[in-house]
Structures are given as C-alpha cells and as structure tokens.
Amino acid sequence: MADTAGRLAALAEGALGAPPPVRIRAWDGSEAGPPDAPALVVRNRRALRRVLWKPGELGMVRAWVAGDLDVEGDLYEVLARLAGLVWERGEGAGEGRVAAALSAVRALREPQARGLAREALTLAGPGLPPAPPPEEAPRRTGVRHSLSRDRDAIHHHYDVGNPFYEHVLGPSMVYSCAYWNASAGTLEQAQEAKLDLVCRKLALREGQRLLDVGCGWGSMVLHAARHYGVRAVGITLSAEQAAYARKRVAEEGLTDRIEIRVQDYRRVADGPYDAISSIGMAEHVGSARYLEYARTLYGLLLPGGRLLNHQIARRPLAREEAYRVDEFIDRYVFPDGELAPVGTTVSLLEEAGFEVRDLESLREHYALTLRRWVANLEGHWDEAVRLTSPGRARVWRLYMAASALAFERNRIGVNQLLAIRPGPEGSSGMGRTRGEWTERG
C-alpha cells in the first residue's frame, strides 16, 4: 500500500477512461495526479467503501460529510473539475460519469470491470457499508408535502440554531438571493437593496396589509414596516425563526404593526391583503401542491393586489426530471424540495387567475450571494462547528459552494415574478413601464 494514491488514480482512470482531473492524496501519505492541481484527500478506506456502495454523488457526499474525504486547495476549483464527472449529465443520460462507471464495475459486465472491481475491493478493505452521517435527514413518512411532513422538512433545515445562521448570513439575516446593484458593496447592502426592490415592485404604501409567506427571521416584514409603513404578517413553519423574528420586532418597537406566526400558508384565513411576498419559500411547496399554493395566495389578495414570487428554477434535463433536485440536496439540505422550470411556474400562476406582469432573472446575483455566505462560514468555522457539528458545517459549506457554481454555470436560476390579481374588468392599476411599477408610492 506504499502508493495508494497511484492505485486510486489508476482505478479512476480505468473506470472513467481519462486521468482524474484533480490530485489525489491517500491515507498513507502518497500522492498522484497533476502537481499544480488542488487535491482530493482520501483520509481512509471507509471513503472508498462509501463510494462503492453508493456510486456517484451520494457516496461522495456521505464521505465528505463524515470527514472521510476532504479538499486541499480551492474548493470551488475542485468542484468545477469534478462537476462533469459527478453532477453534470449528458443529454438524455440518467447519471453522472462516476456513477455510471462504478455501477458498471459493481455489475462486473466485462473482464476489465472485474479487474477494476477486485482492485477497488482490495483498496476499500473488508467491511459492511458505513452508516450515513447523522446529519442526513431521517427517513420520511406520510404523504409528500402534507402539513406534518412539510413541517418536519423545514425543521431539518432551519432549526439548526439561530446563532449558526447569524454567522453565515451576517447582520441582515436574509436567507435568499441578494441584489447587487451599483450601490451594494457589502452583503448587507445587497440584501437591503433586494428587500427594497421587492417593496417597490409590490408598490407598498402606508397603511396597507402585507403577508410575507416564509418570513424567515423577519427581515422582509421589518423592512416593509420600517420604510413603507405597512401592517405586516409574517408566517413560517420554524419555531426558532419565529422566536428570533418576534424578538427583532419587539426591539424595534414594531409590535403594533408586525405579527409573526408559526403557520402554514394553507391555514391563513384572515385575508384580504394588499400585497404578498413569497421569497425563497415556493421551492418547498412541491409540484403536486403548486396550483393549490397559487390559488391560496390569489384568494388572499384584494383585486388589484400584487404578488412577488421569488423562486429558484431548474433547467430540466428531461421531461421526467423537471422537478428533481440533486440527491445530496434532498438527503442533507432541503428534504422534499422541488425545483420547476420558470415557464411551469408562470403557467401555474396564470392558471390560478394571476396576470404575470414581470419576470426578472437574478441568477448571477445568487452566485455572488452564495460566495459571500461561504466566506462567512469559513471565517467563523470553529464557532459554526461548535454550534452545530463538524458534519453539519461541512454540509453547508459544500451545498453553498456547489450551488454558487450551479448558478454561475446556468444549471439553475432564480427569478422574481411580479403577478397581480386583476381588478374590475381586468384592470391592473399599473403604469405602462417597468420604471413606473417600481417607483415608490
């Protein structure tokens, strides 16, 4: 085993038909691959067993979360070099090249595969498949996107401790794409610009009622009440978020204008509202429930009322994959999350009765936002680990860095859709130009 890294590199090349694009450092201290490339560090045999038992993305992610795999050098560069092997699929293909190659090795389809399998098993050593790291979402039961299952999914992602999110998100406590306009030099300024953009698109005015669906830690309702004089209701399924938001509201002396509820959007019954914001929440709704979601929000608006729906969109690889999210995201980050193409979202909003008046893509803005969050996490790494666990911190670092690359490479996008519930005889009450729509009232 004096040259384990060389054997791992040869195994990868035999399976993939090309040398690995990164340097490999093995548990015995040996190295192989381009000397100027960042290194994929294989800390123990268990990492290889994880990948053999779950070829492709999930096996590699489990090894990463457990600390069996690590990176030396620029994480973004390693992910970019591995993206074509692990995440990106060919047109019509159902799996990445690593998963396809390892599946063939395990199936022993040809003599070469049998030789590779023997070598892989020798390097991996004996043993049963390792248990998934504890940060993986527990097995889900019940109807997908039922009230109770959605509540459990939200709890897994958001109730990991408000102090952890303070380190990652910074003072703004906004967990969605920022808006990097010309005056936004910091993350906090860019988040302030995004909140104000939403308020202007909704044409908020003094005394109006605003419903913020998925209000998080309260930043949107605070901004709208503070700067636009609205009366706001924020709803979330996270008890930890709600407690934090209520504390912020009380500290700013806005309890007479803002109410924070732990409530599902399907249980809101105190409409009508003048405006509704839904920022980074609709990804949790699910394709089977999306029309219900759209109709519910439509029914909560006054005629002429506006909806600002801020939502991540997926580039469909095939018709049957239109709503799929990566297995890593589903198992570790957003259980039961689903992403739809933006055209599907527009169609469903229109089917619910809305008139979609404007669509603005913020794809590049989200890549910049995610890179700032990763930098925040890395800058507070020891504290983040103490507040959660090493595995949880590694999950967040990987998912945010990989998501930044996905936005940069146009694998996913994010869009703000401005829709209106038409007034009498189809009137919109809106100006003829986008500039008029977003002017402060």
UniProtKB/TrEMBL annotation:
Pfam families per record: CMAS
UniProt keyword S-adenosyl-L-methionine, yes or no: yes
UniProt entry tagged with the keyword Nucleotide-binding: no
InterPro entries referenced in this protein's UniProt entry, alphabetically: CFA/CMAS, CMAS, MeTfrase_dom, SAM-dependent_MTases_sf
Start and end residues of each Polyketide synthase-like methyltransferase domain: 164-405
UniProt keyword annotations, A-Z: Lipid metabolism, Methyltransferase, S-adenosyl-L-methionine, Transferase
Domain of life, source organism: Bacteria
Entry-linked SUPFAM superfamilies: S-adenosyl-L-methionine-dependent methyltransferases
Endpoints of the signal sequence: none
PANTHER family in the record: CYCLOPROPANE-FATTY-ACYL-PHOSPHOLIPID SYNTHASE
Protein family membership: Belongs to the CFA/CMAS family.
Protein name: Cyclopropane-fatty-acyl-phospholipid synthase family protein
Organism lineage: Bacteria, Bacillati, Actinomycetota, Actinomycetes, Kitasatosporales
